[in-house]
Amino acid sequence: MLDIHIMKVTQEKLEQSRIGLEIEVTGDQTTKYYEQAIKNLTTKANIPGFRKGKIPRQVILQRMGQAQVKAMALEALLEPAINEAIKQEAVPAIGNYQITSNFDELLQKYVPGQVLTFGATVDVPPAVSLGTYTGLSVKAEEIVYDPAQVEDFIDRQRREKATTIPVVGRPAQLDDIAVVDYSGKLPDGTEISGAQAEDFDIELSEGKFIADLVNGIVGMSVGATRNIDVVFPEDYPREDLAAQPAIFNVVLKDLKEQELPALDDDFAKEASDFDTLTEYQASIATRFQEQAQKSTDQNITTAIETALIEVAAADLPETLIERETMNILNQMANQFSQYGMDVNKLFTRETIPKMKENCRADAINNLKQQLAIEEIAKKEGITVTDEAIAAKMSEVIPQLAGENIDENRLRAYITEDLQKEQTLAWLKDHAKVELVPEGSLKPAADDESTAAGEAEAIDILAEAVTE
Hints:
Trigger factor, domain 2; elongated; Chitinase A, domain 3; Alpha-Beta Plaits; single chain; alpha+beta; five-stranded antiparallel β-sheet
Protein backbone atom coordinates (compact mmCIF):
# COMPACT_ATOMS: atom_id res chain seq x y z
CA MET A 1 0.00 0.00 0.00
CA LEU A 2 1.34 3.42 -0.97
CA ASP A 3 1.76 6.27 1.49
CA ILE A 4 -0.71 9.06 0.95
CA HIS A 5 -0.84 12.76 1.75
CA ILE A 6 -4.15 14.60 2.09
CA MET A 7 -4.78 18.20 1.16
CA LYS A 8 -7.79 19.00 3.32
CA VAL A 9 -10.32 17.33 5.65
CA THR A 10 -13.61 18.87 6.72
CA GLN A 11 -15.50 17.39 9.69
CA GLU A 12 -19.23 17.37 10.40
CA LYS A 13 -21.02 15.99 13.46
CA LEU A 14 -23.81 13.58 12.55
CA GLU A 15 -26.48 11.65 14.45
CA GLN A 16 -25.75 8.36 16.23
CA SER A 17 -22.34 9.60 17.31
CA ARG A 18 -20.86 9.71 13.82
CA ILE A 19 -18.41 12.12 12.22
CA GLY A 20 -18.77 12.96 8.55
CA LEU A 21 -15.48 13.52 6.72
CA GLU A 22 -15.04 15.36 3.44
CA ILE A 23 -11.58 14.39 2.21
CA GLU A 24 -9.59 16.10 -0.53
CA VAL A 25 -6.77 14.08 -2.07
CA THR A 26 -4.07 16.09 -3.82
CA GLY A 27 -3.43 15.83 -7.57
CA ASP A 28 0.00 14.33 -7.12
CA GLN A 29 -1.57 11.54 -5.05
CA THR A 30 -4.26 10.77 -7.63
CA THR A 31 -1.47 10.53 -10.21
CA LYS A 32 0.66 8.32 -7.99
CA TYR A 33 -2.12 5.78 -7.45
CA TYR A 34 -3.05 5.81 -11.15
CA GLU A 35 0.56 5.12 -12.15
CA GLN A 36 0.81 2.39 -9.51
CA ALA A 37 -2.28 0.69 -10.97
CA ILE A 38 -0.66 0.65 -14.43
CA LYS A 39 2.56 -0.70 -12.95
CA ASN A 40 0.68 -3.50 -11.16
CA LEU A 41 -1.10 -4.46 -14.39
CA THR A 42 2.17 -4.40 -16.31
CA THR A 43 3.61 -6.85 -13.79
CA LYS A 44 0.62 -9.15 -13.43
CA ALA A 45 -1.37 -8.99 -16.68
CA ASN A 46 -1.24 -11.96 -19.04
CA ILE A 47 -1.42 -10.69 -22.63
CA PRO A 48 -0.52 -13.00 -25.53
CA GLY A 49 2.65 -11.93 -27.33
CA PHE A 50 4.11 -10.13 -24.30
CA ARG A 51 6.08 -11.35 -21.33
CA LYS A 52 4.87 -10.42 -17.86
CA GLY A 53 6.58 -7.27 -16.69
CA LYS A 54 7.47 -6.30 -20.24
CA ILE A 55 4.08 -5.11 -21.46
CA PRO A 56 4.17 -1.53 -22.82
CA ARG A 57 2.05 1.05 -21.04
CA GLN A 58 0.02 1.84 -24.17
CA VAL A 59 -0.87 -1.84 -24.63
CA ILE A 60 -2.11 -2.04 -21.03
CA LEU A 61 -4.33 1.00 -21.55
CA GLN A 62 -5.66 -0.33 -24.86
CA ARG A 63 -6.42 -3.81 -23.56
CA MET A 64 -7.68 -2.93 -20.08
CA GLY A 65 -9.24 0.43 -20.83
CA GLN A 66 -8.62 3.60 -18.87
CA ALA A 67 -11.87 3.14 -16.88
CA GLN A 68 -10.65 -0.17 -15.45
CA VAL A 69 -7.26 1.28 -14.58
CA LYS A 70 -8.93 4.24 -12.85
CA ALA A 71 -11.22 1.87 -10.94
CA MET A 72 -8.23 -0.10 -9.68
CA ALA A 73 -6.47 3.11 -8.66
CA LEU A 74 -9.55 4.44 -6.90
CA GLU A 75 -10.12 1.21 -4.97
CA ALA A 76 -6.51 1.29 -3.81
CA LEU A 77 -6.66 4.99 -2.86
CA LEU A 78 -9.83 5.24 -0.74
CA GLU A 79 -8.87 3.17 2.31
CA PRO A 80 -5.45 4.75 2.97
CA ALA A 81 -6.95 8.21 2.37
CA ILE A 82 -9.62 7.63 5.03
CA ASN A 83 -7.09 6.17 7.48
CA GLU A 84 -4.77 9.13 6.94
CA ALA A 85 -7.66 11.58 7.41
CA ILE A 86 -8.60 9.91 10.72
CA LYS A 87 -4.95 10.08 11.84
CA GLN A 88 -4.41 13.65 10.64
CA GLU A 89 -7.55 14.98 12.37
CA ALA A 90 -7.06 12.79 15.48
CA VAL A 91 -10.60 11.42 15.11
CA PRO A 92 -11.26 8.84 17.91
CA ALA A 93 -12.80 6.40 15.45
CA ILE A 94 -14.40 3.15 16.61
CA GLY A 95 -15.40 0.42 14.21
CA ASN A 96 -15.17 0.54 10.44
CA TYR A 97 -15.62 3.58 8.25
CA GLN A 98 -18.32 3.95 5.59
CA ILE A 99 -17.77 5.65 2.23
CA THR A 100 -20.74 7.89 1.54
CA SER A 101 -19.80 8.92 -2.00
CA ASN A 102 -21.09 6.85 -4.89
CA PHE A 103 -18.22 4.85 -6.42
CA ASP A 104 -19.39 5.27 -10.03
CA GLU A 105 -19.69 9.04 -9.56
CA LEU A 106 -16.22 9.15 -8.02
CA LEU A 107 -14.91 7.19 -10.97
CA GLN A 108 -16.31 9.82 -13.34
CA LYS A 109 -14.71 12.63 -11.26
CA TYR A 110 -11.36 10.88 -10.91
CA VAL A 111 -8.79 12.53 -13.18
CA PRO A 112 -5.13 11.73 -12.50
CA GLY A 113 -3.32 14.91 -11.55
CA GLN A 114 -6.45 16.66 -10.27
CA VAL A 115 -7.82 16.95 -6.72
CA LEU A 116 -10.36 14.25 -5.78
CA THR A 117 -12.94 14.92 -3.07
CA PHE A 118 -15.05 12.19 -1.47
CA GLY A 119 -17.12 11.62 1.68
CA ALA A 120 -16.98 9.06 4.48
CA THR A 121 -18.34 8.58 7.98
CA VAL A 122 -16.84 7.00 11.10
CA ASP A 123 -18.38 6.15 14.46
CA VAL A 124 -16.87 7.87 17.51
CA PRO A 125 -17.40 7.37 21.25
CA PRO A 126 -20.72 8.92 22.26
CA ALA A 127 -21.00 11.94 24.50
CA VAL A 128 -22.95 11.13 27.67
CA SER A 129 -25.44 13.50 29.27
CA LEU A 130 -26.19 12.73 32.91
CA GLY A 131 -29.25 13.64 34.89
CA THR A 132 -29.28 13.71 38.69
CA TYR A 133 -27.41 10.66 39.91
CA THR A 134 -26.71 11.65 43.53
CA GLY A 135 -29.44 10.46 45.84
CA LEU A 136 -30.98 7.94 43.45
CA SER A 137 -34.23 6.62 44.90
CA VAL A 138 -34.50 2.87 44.40
CA LYS A 139 -36.40 -0.10 45.78
CA ALA A 140 -34.73 -3.46 46.28
CA GLU A 141 -35.94 -6.76 47.64
CA GLU A 142 -34.46 -7.70 51.00
CA ILE A 143 -33.50 -11.36 51.31
CA VAL A 144 -34.08 -12.34 54.93
CA TYR A 145 -32.28 -15.21 56.62
CA ASP A 146 -34.66 -17.97 57.68
CA PRO A 147 -33.45 -20.30 60.48
CA ALA A 148 -35.44 -23.10 58.81
CA GLN A 149 -32.76 -23.12 56.10
CA VAL A 150 -30.33 -24.63 58.60
CA GLU A 151 -32.76 -27.40 59.47
CA ASP A 152 -33.48 -28.12 55.80
CA PHE A 153 -29.77 -28.22 54.94
CA ILE A 154 -28.92 -30.62 57.77
CA ASP A 155 -31.98 -32.74 56.95
CA ARG A 156 -30.76 -33.13 53.35
CA GLN A 157 -27.33 -34.16 54.61
CA ARG A 158 -28.85 -36.72 56.95
CA ARG A 159 -30.87 -38.17 54.07
CA GLU A 160 -27.72 -38.43 51.94
CA LYS A 161 -26.11 -40.47 54.71
CA ALA A 162 -29.24 -42.51 55.51
CA THR A 163 -29.36 -46.29 55.33
CA THR A 164 -32.27 -48.17 53.76
CA ILE A 165 -34.13 -50.80 55.82
CA PRO A 166 -37.17 -52.99 54.99
CA VAL A 167 -40.64 -51.92 56.12
CA VAL A 168 -42.51 -54.58 58.06
CA GLY A 169 -46.11 -54.69 59.23
CA ARG A 170 -47.53 -51.47 57.77
CA PRO A 171 -48.71 -50.02 54.43
CA ALA A 172 -46.80 -47.48 52.35
CA GLN A 173 -46.55 -43.93 53.63
CA LEU A 174 -44.91 -40.71 52.52
CA ASP A 175 -41.09 -40.72 52.47
CA ASP A 176 -40.98 -44.50 51.93
CA ILE A 177 -39.27 -46.06 48.93
CA ALA A 178 -41.68 -48.25 46.98
CA VAL A 179 -40.44 -50.99 44.64
CA VAL A 180 -43.12 -51.40 41.97
CA ASP A 181 -44.07 -52.77 38.60
CA TYR A 182 -46.24 -50.31 36.70
CA SER A 183 -47.90 -49.86 33.34
CA GLY A 184 -49.67 -46.74 32.10
CA LYS A 185 -52.60 -46.52 29.71
CA LEU A 186 -54.78 -43.77 28.31
CA PRO A 187 -58.47 -43.78 29.33
CA ASP A 188 -59.34 -45.54 26.03
CA GLY A 189 -57.01 -48.43 26.91
CA THR A 190 -54.09 -47.43 24.63
CA GLU A 191 -50.74 -48.23 26.20
CA ILE A 192 -48.49 -45.22 26.78
CA SER A 193 -45.09 -45.81 25.21
CA GLY A 194 -42.31 -45.64 27.78
CA ALA A 195 -44.74 -45.84 30.72
CA GLN A 196 -43.90 -49.41 31.76
CA ALA A 197 -41.30 -50.58 34.29
CA GLU A 198 -40.44 -53.49 36.57
CA ASP A 199 -38.76 -53.37 39.99
CA PHE A 200 -38.75 -49.59 39.81
CA ASP A 201 -37.87 -47.55 42.93
CA ILE A 202 -40.22 -44.64 43.59
CA GLU A 203 -39.45 -42.26 46.45
CA LEU A 204 -42.83 -41.34 47.88
CA SER A 205 -42.03 -37.68 48.36
CA GLU A 206 -43.31 -34.43 46.87
CA GLY A 207 -41.65 -33.57 43.57
CA LYS A 208 -39.93 -36.93 43.14
CA PHE A 209 -42.49 -38.43 40.74
CA ILE A 210 -45.96 -37.79 39.34
CA ALA A 211 -47.92 -36.51 42.35
CA ASP A 212 -51.11 -38.53 41.66
CA LEU A 213 -49.09 -41.74 41.34
CA VAL A 214 -47.19 -41.10 44.59
CA ASN A 215 -50.43 -40.36 46.47
CA GLY A 216 -52.07 -43.44 44.96
CA ILE A 217 -49.32 -45.76 46.21
CA VAL A 218 -49.56 -44.38 49.76
CA GLY A 219 -51.71 -46.84 51.75
CA MET A 220 -50.87 -49.89 49.60
CA SER A 221 -49.46 -53.03 51.25
CA VAL A 222 -46.68 -55.17 49.81
CA GLY A 223 -48.13 -57.60 47.26
CA ALA A 224 -51.15 -55.41 46.50
CA THR A 225 -52.23 -54.29 43.03
CA ARG A 226 -54.05 -51.02 42.37
CA ASN A 227 -55.30 -49.01 39.37
CA ILE A 228 -54.47 -45.38 40.00
CA ASP A 229 -56.04 -42.46 38.13
CA VAL A 230 -53.37 -39.96 37.15
CA VAL A 231 -53.32 -36.55 35.49
CA PHE A 232 -49.90 -35.66 34.10
CA PRO A 233 -48.56 -32.24 35.18
CA GLU A 234 -49.00 -29.34 32.74
CA ASP A 235 -45.22 -28.93 32.53
CA TYR A 236 -44.55 -32.63 31.92
CA PRO A 237 -41.54 -33.02 29.58
CA ARG A 238 -43.54 -35.04 27.05
CA GLU A 239 -45.87 -32.54 25.42
CA ASP A 240 -48.19 -35.31 24.17
CA LEU A 241 -48.89 -36.29 27.80
CA ALA A 242 -48.86 -32.87 29.52
CA ALA A 243 -52.15 -32.31 31.45
CA GLN A 244 -53.54 -35.60 30.04
CA PRO A 245 -55.41 -38.18 32.18
CA ALA A 246 -54.15 -41.77 32.40
CA ILE A 247 -54.57 -44.98 34.42
CA PHE A 248 -51.56 -46.73 35.96
CA ASN A 249 -51.71 -50.35 37.06
CA VAL A 250 -49.29 -50.65 39.98
CA VAL A 251 -48.01 -53.74 41.81
CA LEU A 252 -46.24 -52.97 45.10
CA LYS A 253 -43.46 -55.58 45.31
CA ASP A 254 -41.41 -54.24 48.21
CA LEU A 255 -41.30 -51.36 50.64
CA LYS A 256 -38.29 -49.68 52.25
CA GLU A 257 -37.67 -46.70 54.47
CA GLN A 258 -34.66 -44.52 55.22
CA GLU A 259 -33.07 -44.66 58.64
CA LEU A 260 -31.47 -41.30 59.33
CA PRO A 261 -28.28 -40.95 61.38
CA ALA A 262 -28.70 -39.50 64.87
CA LEU A 263 -28.48 -35.71 65.05
CA ASP A 264 -25.52 -35.47 67.41
CA ASP A 265 -21.86 -34.54 67.65
CA ASP A 266 -20.81 -37.71 65.84
CA PHE A 267 -22.92 -36.67 62.84
CA ALA A 268 -21.34 -33.19 62.91
CA LYS A 269 -17.83 -34.70 62.90
CA GLU A 270 -18.71 -36.93 59.94
CA ALA A 271 -20.42 -34.18 57.93
CA SER A 272 -18.00 -31.32 58.66
CA ASP A 273 -14.75 -30.19 60.23
CA PHE A 274 -16.49 -29.24 63.47
CA ASP A 275 -16.40 -31.28 66.69
CA THR A 276 -19.87 -30.45 67.96
CA LEU A 277 -23.34 -30.21 66.45
CA THR A 278 -23.75 -26.73 67.96
CA GLU A 279 -20.65 -25.42 66.19
CA TYR A 280 -21.74 -27.03 62.93
CA GLN A 281 -25.23 -25.52 63.10
CA ALA A 282 -23.78 -22.09 63.92
CA SER A 283 -21.44 -22.24 60.89
CA ILE A 284 -24.33 -23.13 58.56
CA ALA A 285 -26.44 -20.31 60.02
CA THR A 286 -23.58 -17.84 59.43
CA ARG A 287 -23.25 -19.03 55.83
CA PHE A 288 -26.95 -18.53 55.10
CA GLN A 289 -26.93 -15.12 56.81
CA GLU A 290 -23.99 -14.04 54.64
CA GLN A 291 -25.73 -15.35 51.52
CA ALA A 292 -28.88 -13.43 52.40
CA GLN A 293 -26.91 -10.20 52.89
CA LYS A 294 -24.96 -10.76 49.67
CA SER A 295 -28.20 -11.34 47.74
CA THR A 296 -29.72 -8.19 49.24
CA ASP A 297 -26.62 -6.17 48.29
CA GLN A 298 -26.78 -7.54 44.76
CA ASN A 299 -30.46 -6.56 44.52
CA ILE A 300 -29.53 -3.01 45.56
CA THR A 301 -26.73 -2.88 42.99
CA THR A 302 -29.06 -4.16 40.26
CA ALA A 303 -31.67 -1.55 41.22
CA ILE A 304 -29.05 1.22 40.98
CA GLU A 305 -27.80 -0.06 37.61
CA THR A 306 -31.38 -0.11 36.33
CA ALA A 307 -31.94 3.45 37.57
CA LEU A 308 -28.85 4.60 35.65
CA ILE A 309 -30.60 3.72 32.37
CA GLU A 310 -32.96 6.63 32.97
CA VAL A 311 -30.20 8.95 34.19
CA ALA A 312 -27.93 8.61 31.14
CA ALA A 313 -28.68 9.94 27.68
CA ALA A 314 -26.38 9.07 24.79
CA ASP A 315 -26.68 8.94 21.01
CA LEU A 316 -25.24 5.47 20.61
CA PRO A 317 -23.41 4.51 17.41
CA GLU A 318 -24.34 1.27 15.70
CA THR A 319 -20.78 0.00 16.12
CA LEU A 320 -21.13 -0.11 19.92
CA ILE A 321 -24.64 -1.57 19.80
CA GLU A 322 -23.46 -4.31 17.46
CA ARG A 323 -20.47 -5.12 19.66
CA GLU A 324 -22.55 -5.31 22.84
CA THR A 325 -25.20 -7.43 21.12
CA MET A 326 -22.50 -9.88 20.08
CA ASN A 327 -21.11 -9.86 23.63
CA ILE A 328 -24.52 -10.95 24.91
CA LEU A 329 -24.75 -13.71 22.31
CA ASN A 330 -21.21 -14.85 23.09
CA GLN A 331 -22.10 -15.11 26.77
CA MET A 332 -25.14 -17.18 25.86
CA ALA A 333 -22.99 -19.40 23.62
CA ASN A 334 -20.52 -19.98 26.47
CA GLN A 335 -23.35 -20.94 28.80
CA PHE A 336 -24.84 -23.39 26.31
CA SER A 337 -21.39 -24.85 25.67
CA GLN A 338 -20.96 -25.47 29.40
CA TYR A 339 -24.26 -27.37 29.33
CA GLY A 340 -22.75 -29.67 26.70
CA MET A 341 -24.81 -28.28 23.82
CA ASP A 342 -23.46 -28.01 20.27
CA VAL A 343 -23.19 -24.23 19.82
CA ASN A 344 -22.55 -24.53 16.07
CA LYS A 345 -25.97 -26.09 15.60
CA LEU A 346 -27.69 -23.44 17.71
CA PHE A 347 -26.03 -20.31 16.33
CA THR A 348 -26.65 -20.38 12.58
CA ARG A 349 -27.22 -17.87 9.80
CA GLU A 350 -30.95 -18.40 10.30
CA THR A 351 -31.11 -17.93 14.09
CA ILE A 352 -28.50 -15.22 14.73
CA PRO A 353 -30.33 -12.29 13.02
CA LYS A 354 -33.50 -12.91 15.08
CA MET A 355 -31.49 -13.33 18.26
CA LYS A 356 -29.59 -10.10 17.63
CA GLU A 357 -32.86 -8.25 17.12
CA ASN A 358 -34.27 -9.58 20.39
CA CYS A 359 -31.09 -8.74 22.34
CA ARG A 360 -30.76 -5.21 20.93
CA ALA A 361 -32.71 -3.52 23.77
CA ASP A 362 -30.57 -5.33 26.36
CA ALA A 363 -27.42 -4.18 24.55
CA ILE A 364 -28.56 -0.53 24.52
CA ASN A 365 -29.37 -0.60 28.24
CA ASN A 366 -26.03 -2.24 29.04
CA LEU A 367 -24.20 0.49 27.14
CA LYS A 368 -26.13 3.28 28.84
CA GLN A 369 -25.29 1.80 32.25
CA GLN A 370 -21.63 1.41 31.31
CA LEU A 371 -21.32 4.94 29.92
CA ALA A 372 -23.12 6.43 32.93
CA ILE A 373 -20.76 4.65 35.34
CA GLU A 374 -17.70 5.83 33.40
CA GLU A 375 -18.95 9.44 33.32
CA ILE A 376 -19.84 9.46 37.03
CA ALA A 377 -16.39 8.10 37.85
CA LYS A 378 -14.85 11.01 35.91
CA LYS A 379 -17.06 13.64 37.53
CA GLU A 380 -16.51 12.31 41.06
CA GLY A 381 -12.81 11.56 40.62
CA ILE A 382 -13.23 7.86 41.37
CA THR A 383 -9.97 6.13 40.45
CA VAL A 384 -8.39 2.75 41.06
CA THR A 385 -5.04 2.59 42.81
CA ASP A 386 -2.09 0.70 41.35
CA GLU A 387 -2.00 -1.35 44.55
CA ALA A 388 -5.60 -2.51 44.07
CA ILE A 389 -4.94 -3.43 40.44
CA ALA A 390 -1.78 -5.37 41.36
CA ALA A 391 -3.59 -7.22 44.15
CA LYS A 392 -6.41 -8.23 41.84
CA MET A 393 -4.02 -9.34 39.10
CA SER A 394 -2.05 -11.50 41.56
CA GLU A 395 -5.37 -13.09 42.50
CA VAL A 396 -6.58 -13.66 38.94
CA ILE A 397 -3.40 -14.73 37.09
CA PRO A 398 -2.96 -18.04 39.00
CA GLN A 399 -6.54 -18.93 38.04
CA LEU A 400 -5.58 -18.55 34.37
CA ALA A 401 -2.52 -20.82 34.59
CA GLY A 402 -1.78 -22.53 31.29
CA GLU A 403 -3.68 -19.94 29.23
CA ASN A 404 -2.13 -17.41 26.85
CA ILE A 405 -2.60 -14.17 28.78
CA ASP A 406 -2.21 -10.66 27.42
CA GLU A 407 -1.34 -8.92 30.68
CA ASN A 408 -2.00 -5.44 29.27
CA ARG A 409 -5.53 -6.40 28.25
CA LEU A 410 -6.06 -8.17 31.56
CA ARG A 411 -4.88 -5.09 33.44
CA ALA A 412 -7.25 -2.87 31.43
CA TYR A 413 -10.16 -5.23 32.10
CA ILE A 414 -9.40 -5.42 35.84
CA THR A 415 -9.03 -1.63 36.06
CA GLU A 416 -12.40 -1.12 34.37
CA ASP A 417 -14.05 -3.74 36.57
CA LEU A 418 -12.65 -2.28 39.81
CA GLN A 419 -13.64 1.24 38.79
CA LYS A 420 -17.17 0.04 38.08
CA GLU A 421 -17.27 -1.67 41.46
CA GLN A 422 -16.07 1.46 43.27
CA THR A 423 -18.46 3.73 41.38
CA LEU A 424 -21.45 1.52 42.16
CA ALA A 425 -20.38 1.48 45.83
CA TRP A 426 -20.25 5.30 45.74
CA LEU A 427 -23.72 5.47 44.18
CA LYS A 428 -25.04 3.04 46.80
CA ASP A 429 -23.63 5.19 49.62
CA HIS A 430 -25.36 8.24 48.12
CA ALA A 431 -28.63 6.54 47.16
CA LYS A 432 -31.98 6.41 48.94
CA VAL A 433 -32.62 2.68 49.18
CA GLU A 434 -35.96 1.27 50.29
CA LEU A 435 -35.81 -2.42 51.15
CA VAL A 436 -39.04 -4.30 50.45
CA PRO A 437 -40.06 -7.93 51.09
CA GLU A 438 -38.75 -10.62 48.76
CA GLY A 439 -41.03 -11.21 45.79
CA SER A 440 -42.89 -7.91 46.19
CA LEU A 441 -41.35 -6.09 43.23
CA LYS A 442 -42.71 -6.59 39.76
CA PRO A 443 -40.68 -5.40 36.78
CA ALA A 444 -41.96 -2.30 35.02
CA ALA A 445 -43.32 -2.84 31.52
CA ASP A 446 -40.11 -1.54 29.91
CA ASP A 447 -37.97 -3.77 32.11
CA GLU A 448 -40.15 -6.75 31.25
CA SER A 449 -39.72 -6.17 27.53
CA THR A 450 -35.98 -5.68 27.91
CA ALA A 451 -35.50 -8.73 30.12
CA ALA A 452 -37.54 -10.74 27.66
CA GLY A 453 -34.94 -10.19 24.94
CA GLU A 454 -32.58 -12.92 26.05
CA ALA A 455 -35.49 -15.26 26.86
CA GLU A 456 -36.88 -14.78 23.35
CA ALA A 457 -33.43 -15.42 21.89
CA ILE A 458 -33.30 -18.69 23.84
CA ASP A 459 -36.76 -19.57 22.51
CA ILE A 460 -35.47 -19.05 18.97
CA LEU A 461 -32.64 -21.44 19.70
CA ALA A 462 -35.06 -23.99 21.12
CA GLU A 463 -37.17 -23.79 17.96
CA ALA A 464 -34.05 -24.28 15.84
CA VAL A 465 -33.11 -27.40 17.79
CA THR A 466 -36.55 -28.98 17.43
CA GLU A 467 -36.93 -28.25 13.73
